[in-house]
Amino acid sequence: MRLALLFSLALTVSGLSFANDFYQVPLPDDAKEFARLDSKMPAVLSYFSQQPEAALRDYYISQLGQPDNEQTLYGRLHLYFRVNNNQVRILISSQNDWRQVDIMVQN
After folding, report:
1. Which of 36, 47, 60 is nearest to 98 (CA)?
2. Which 8-state DSSP code applies to residue 39?
3. Which among 70, 89, 42, 21 is positioned nearest to 33, based on CA atoms?
4. Contact 45/35 with Cβ under 8 angstroms?
5. pTM to 2 decimals?
6. 91 CB burial (10 A radius; 0-12, 13-18, 19+)
7. Residue 92, helix vs strand vs coil
């Protein structure tokens, strides 16, 4: 019984750390994940946040450094980074009072 409880706790704790680290791209504390496709490349994770677009932009720059490229297309902010030899695109768009953030990681 005790071993099963410890195993269950270990799975819960490891799941939490993985949820906040998608291919070594950090997620803000208020991220509400709604989609994850990570069994093959390109890997994609999508979440909602109530932070303003500028705060999310600043968060990723503080965590990942200056982006290789930054542009706004059709009202959506695109940030491009290189993380551990992977190309990372972070797309931030507004959905009512929320921001939708899509992270795509590819080799």
Report:
1. 47
2. S
3. 21
4. yes
5. 0.79
6. middle
7. strand
